[in-house]
User: What shape does this take?
Amino acid sequence: MEGPARPYTNFIPPYLKESVGKWKTHKVLEPGIIEHLDTSGNKIYTVRVASTPNGRYSTETMRKISAIARKYAGASMRFTGGINMEFVTKDLNDAISLKTEMEDLGFPIGGWDGHLWNMTSCAGYFHCALAATDAPSILQNLANNLGKYFNKEELPAKLTISSSGCPSSCGNSFLTDISISGIHTEIPIVTPEVSKCDLQGTAYTCPVGAIQLKQLPDGSRTLEIRANLCIGCGLCVGACGGIIFETPEKTDGHAISIGGKAVPSRVGTTLGRVVVPYLPNEPPYYKKTVAVVTRIIETWKKDARKGERIADWVDRIGWESFYEKTGLPFYGQSMEYLDVRGMMTLRDGGTR
Amino acid sequence: MEGPARPYTNFIPPYLKESVGKWKTHKVLEPGIIEHLDTSGNKIYTVRVASTPNGRYSTETMRKISAIARKYAGASMRFTGGINMEFVTKDLNDAISLKTEMEDLGFPIGGWDGHLWNMTSCAGYFHCALAATDAPSILQNLANNLGKYFNKEELPAKLTISSSGCPSSCGNSFLTDISISGIHTEIPIVTPEVSKCDLQGTAYTCPVGAIQLKQLPDGSRTLEIRANLCIGCGLCVGACGGIIFETPEKTDGHAISIGGKAVPSRVGTTLGRVVVPYLPNEPPYYKKTVAVVTRIIETWKKDARKGERIADWVDRIGWESFYEKTGLPFYGQSMEYLDVRGMMTLRDGGTR
Amino acid sequence: MMSEVPEEVIQGRKILNELKKGDWPNFVREAEKTRYPVDLYGASLALKRDLFTTGGYVSVPGAPTGILMRVTSRPDIGENANIVRVLIPSGNFLTSDMLDTLCELADKYGVGMIHGISTGEDVEIPGIPKEKIRDFITELRQRGFECGSTGDAFRAVTTCVGSLLCEYSNLNTAEFRDSFYDKYNDFAKFPTFPHKVKVKVSGCPIDCGRATQKADIGIVGSWKGAPEVNQSLISKMDSEKLDNIIRSCPTGAISRHGSGISIKGEDCTQCMICVRNSGGAISQGREKQYLIYAGGKLRGKKGPLSGKLFTKVNSIEEAMNLIGTMVDIYGEQAARKERMGDLMFRIGMKNFLDLMKTKPQAHNAKDLRTNIFYSVNGEERERMPEEIKKAVGGE
Amino acid sequence: MMSEVPEEVIQGRKILNELKKGDWPNFVREAEKTRYPVDLYGASLALKRDLFTTGGYVSVPGAPTGILMRVTSRPDIGENANIVRVLIPSGNFLTSDMLDTLCELADKYGVGMIHGISTGEDVEIPGIPKEKIRDFITELRQRGFECGSTGDAFRAVTTCVGSLLCEYSNLNTAEFRDSFYDKYNDFAKFPTFPHKVKVKVSGCPIDCGRATQKADIGIVGSWKGAPEVNQSLISKMDSEKLDNIIRSCPTGAISRHGSGISIKGEDCTQCMICVRNSGGAISQGREKQYLIYAGGKLRGKKGPLSGKLFTKVNSIEEAMNLIGTMVDIYGEQAARKERMGDLMFRIGMKNFLDLMKTKPQAHNAKDLRTNIFYSVNGEERERMPEEIKKAVGGE
Ligand code: SRM
Ligand code: SRM
Ligand code: SRM
Ligand code: SRM
Ligand code: SF4
Ligand code: SF4
Ligand code: SF4
Ligand code: SF4
Ligand code: SF4
Ligand code: SF4
Ligand code: SF4
Ligand code: SF4
Assistant: This one.
């Protein structure tokens, strides 16, 4: 059999099998521990445990986690879409012992309801070739500062945070309540190496049509970037090694967006919106970035009604009030032209 | 002094002068009659009177109207932005007599609150050179059928209706709760006459870039319309007499849109949205068009909560439910690609 | 010479007979009392084709705008039907004398028909033969009227009735319009812009004047912060009614305080809901502010676009002066026949504000963008972090 | 040969020392327990530059997807760091045995690090030297794992936990994913599409699986019409709580009926609010329906776009088959490296549905268009009036 190992029933805790598809209600007992009741009266407990900001573990630590799962959770554990860990115990005592052991190992239990549920980061400088900012180290700082919301201090509603090193948004940028997104702001240069790439294909990657094919005096062809159109998105740089950013250390940075969510309640599914278009990369502490995020969360915490996700809150008070309350400066880059609704399906093949 | 006659104070009823800027409250006494109270205790009465659907009057009728104003309303009257007439009387009795006389002349009193406030039409075939549909005769039919809502039957909220002969929307299409808009659906043809026009300028009018300059074998230049791109909007036809629609009688028609409003309450200021993309021109009765509009109003009347304009109602129930409740068929032309929000301010000079 | 009546005219008459029916005021019945070419109109309905074309030209000294040439494409059925647009006083009040004069002129020069009022809030006198236009306009002006509102100029400025009849007004719109013509009449009279420019004015955010919807430049009287509360009237209000008012504030700006209420100024969007529902207990705020919208229009190149909030100013003079600045820059920057809204659409709000030398502010954004596809220049890379540090700290 | 430690490494170490602080689980502390080249990472932070590039190539029979080549641009500081992506079982449960195996392999072939879990819900084993990749993959497969989820193929299908742990589920998402791989594994293994295709599945509209947000093809379990009401539980509910539930239905679909409630099916948008708040008294409906979203993605050419509701189907088989049809047509129609959402953006929803041979329906439109700039062809000019007549009458 090719593909991932299956059927899934082989890998779940044995006591879970008979309840699958028969759940009745659940109760959040404390941040990170849910009691699930099925229609036959069986109960199990889900314990949610935080991961490292970018989900990287040493095998040393992972082996310990595996052992804990073996001890308390039916010799199985799962990863969540929020890159956390979940353990399912048959017994509440097991859940509590598991909590203690995971905490001793340095991994807090938390999430659900009005808490920080999860933080996700992409690879960034840590492993990726395309990063404009080091998403994991930014998220590490945010986690260090905001961890209290995972299981101690309460928030008006669910909170998720993400961090991605570039516009690819592998870390879930634009989907979470708060996102940090790496952004290039430099106009790339075309080197002679460009000739090794598919010129037409590379030109096509540009979202704003800023790349033109050009004939050189010797008859060979190259690409030209029109500086007045280029938005420095870096898509061409990713597509062809012959196009490079010269001084990323001076020009790369990151933007902050807020209000992404998937759940259809209240304002519905929304993508995050850019509230701070640019901050420089300042490791190790990224103090401005942490200060902005903290300010946003604290303002939301103070001002929102119970149950209001950040997107719902801003929808109610409006962006003008958001900026007034947070004290953040507003920049033109945050704007878009909204009435394009209705303009876009003009006809077949139209490219706009 | 050039420009319109002024100051305005010369033309308003004399008893109005001292109250200007000092109004305190108002009360709608009945559809079409408002009592206004100023801070000094003065009262006046506004009487709102329907116009013909396209605001055209014979001088014979207009002279009678003038005489009625002279008799009851301080020898002055005004036209509203909804192309109705308004008379301001000092005395409630005058307002009531005025009402009787205007009704005798064939002009009903009405509007305000949960009523049909106004209907506006452009010139259409009646006077214009660009019409794809005869807006006035359509609106006349609608008015004949819906007049009861002006002063008799109550509606959940304000209702306005408009009708325009072509996409220029002179009649207020897209701004009113219900709009009828003339639409061409034919790809125009380029005649030799085109050479009399500014070719470059004409090509530029096309919103989808469907017009190309073309060199003829004899070296002269003409225009070519790319059929796969053209949406038949008619802008080029309006811009240059050398481009014409061949069979408008077979292809012209009108679309119906709903939900335009200016008032910022509830869903806020919105433009109308196309619910029926095409109906043929069928004078004298335009029965299908009248049936669609009637069905929409009746469904809204039955289903909406008090105070919900059509846009507010649809916002609450959603388009899917709107189509289910009205029984109207849905067509792909009504769709647009919504996520273009956020895509449009890429950079200077970008044309999309 | 008697010619046979064409088939489309016969069919047209049948259609018109049907159209004439019904209780509602009827424009065909009105037209039949005039010399308007009803047969031409009837034939167009029968043929399902517009039978007018634009064209012809007449030069009238002192009237560079205001005349619309209308040529019949079926002279065998009905004649040309040129139109002159007549500006009316601010507030749209016309005295009976004025109405009578217009009727007299329409009878004398036109076909005895008055288009009162156009959707652009002018009176039009239709059916004036080309050779009479000059004389008509001369007499029109002698009798105290002015024609205008065509061409690439300021179209007739329109306003809601405002302070003349309405307690919600934050701006005497009629007075504003009078001053507009004192200052800008030349730009209304002479077509010098890339395309038409419409200015519309509403006295409050309810926007009866549709200033936010269909004006290249829209002006809306408003105020700053919370509305004015008459606590004693509030305390007398039925408790359920008051609850309803509190609940219906879309931003949740209102909260109870004992028997009174308090309203958070920074959350009030001046939507007028509480003002409208409170029977005078809540009214518009005292510190006025004027909202300037830009780019509303219904066709142009990109179709219907609502106006975008461009800026807020504190005085009527500022609002008035801004109109001039805006059209100056519009004149420099727009392409031929490009409405202001299409210019904004093409270059984007940020660039439009930059052009207009106006600092972008959060009120410019109805919603914010959902991608990071924009440019940040060197100066901004220096300045932004400093400003952010100042605002929230963090070295 | 001992080389001097470069300045950026010294600076980098200082930065890493700071980064290692704090109570939260820490990836630098974890990395230091492995053979991962921390100095290279530290230097990149000091230089504020990514020090990896993509490149290199290794052909492994039976593994056309799953390998990411990572080349260091500073071999003097740290070595290449190729990555292999490992697919995990549906529902994301891994037994302790499996975890131990992965650790063993990561120690043997990699740097002793596990990326568990990626945001795309795979386990990654980083740091495998090029020459060991073949052997690694061979052993990986022998031990019951499969690599994949790179290239222009189906990326790892991801799901919410669904029926395994959750009472809201309308779809056993893990079972669905297992069947997906039974049917479509070839398209997951061999890169044959214009660009990557992500399929994500959620058991209910709450969408913990982000199927509506970031999946080229998103599948959401749902139901038709009104939710199921347990009237006896409702009648026992605190009246204020019930009022709150009724009020918080966004479409106003719920109304009281004596001590019970009734819900209008045509107004229910299956938003789950009442279900979530009623403690079991209201639950998802029995007649299931599956919502298929199309075109969600976060970059591509046009940046972040949420998925659009493409269609609703009545059975799980239909949903499963539709995935195949959709990628077939996507394969034919999209340009190279054009994500499905960008294709939809380019050609518009109507044309996309036409291509997909799917009749446009009102559920496809979140909002309708605000202009009349579209085309209507001859067939439509005939058909539309007839259908409308049938629907509302009027000859
Ligand atoms: C008379 C009037 C309609 C009516 O029956 O009441 C009218 C009539 C015409 N409009 Fe209009 N427009 C009239 C208000 C409007 C409005 C509404 C408004 O002004 O509040 C609009 C929409 C708002 C806007 O400007 O976007 C409007 C948008 C247009 C357009 C589209 C302009 C554009 O954006 O490109 C055109 C076509 C053009 O100018 O190229 C147009 C052109 C025309 C012409 C001149 C076309 C023509 O040459 O045949 C029409 C003359 C018909 C006639 O015989 O009178 N008319 N036109 C209105 C006179 C306004 C006035 O007194 O100044
Ligand atoms: C006369 C007129 C302004 C003008 O100078 O043209 C007008 C005048 C008033 N409007 Fe209006 N509205 C007038 C067109 C509008 C329009 C534009 C339109 O219909 O073309 C709108 C916004 C467009 C829209 O549909 O969203 C408009 C939205 C309102 C509203 C909000 C209605 C609603 O949606 O709830 C109110 C407030 C209310 O009714 O409580 C209002 C209220 C008022 C009041 C009653 C307020 C007051 O007295 O304090 C004004 C009455 C003054 C009077 O005695 O005449 N007026 N009003 C317009 C009459 C048009 C007509 O003949 O029907
Ligand atoms: C590992 C992972 C991030 C993480 O740390 O967890 C990741 C890592 C990379 N992503 Fe991603 N993406 C990862 C999830 C995502 C997601 C989220 C998701 O899948 O749920 C997205 C956004 C959703 C989407 O697809 O739109 C995402 C959108 C991209 C894109 C943008 C694709 C596009 O639309 O054009 C790229 C660039 C590309 O493919 O050209 C990309 C490319 C990359 C590359 C391969 C770039 C490169 O060659 O260096 C990164 C490899 C870094 C590394 O060293 O591992 N990655 N990538 C995630 C692995 C997913 C998996 O196991 O399959
Ligand atoms: C485990 C997980 C699915 C998975 O397999 O990955 C999950 C599982 C549940 N979610 Fe979720 N949600 C999970 C990610 C999400 C996401 C996506 C995300 O965060 O990345 C969303 C939508 C995204 C968003 O932010 O809008 C999501 C939005 C919800 C909501 C709505 C929250 C809100 O905004 O109000 C609920 C309902 C609630 O909390 O009442 C919910 C409720 C639930 C419950 C508690 C429902 C139930 O009946 O038990 C599920 C618990 C099962 C369990 O015991 O684990 N789940 N949930 C995810 C845990 C992520 C984590 O580690 O933090
Ligand atoms: S978001 Fe960018 S930097 Fe981060 S892993 Fe993806 S491609 Fe790399
Ligand atoms: S950086 Fe982006 S915008 Fe600039 S040329 Fe490259 S692809 Fe185009
Ligand atoms: S909407 Fe079209 S048909 Fe009607 S008056 Fe304006 S230009 Fe003429
Ligand atoms: S009808 Fe409209 S879309 Fe077609 S060519 Fe003319 S301007 Fe372009
Ligand atoms: S816009 Fe405001 S001030 Fe003007 S008439 Fe309407 S309600 Fe009165
Ligand atoms: S005007 Fe509107 S936003 Fe302001 S307090 Fe009143 S209801 Fe609230
Ligand atoms: S999406 Fe629905 S079914 Fe799936 S875990 Fe979340 S709440 Fe449960
Ligand atoms: S699921 Fe949502 S829309 Fe349906 S009845 Fe419940 S609250 Fe209303």
Remarks:
- Chain B has three domains: 8-104, 116-183+251-349, 189-244.
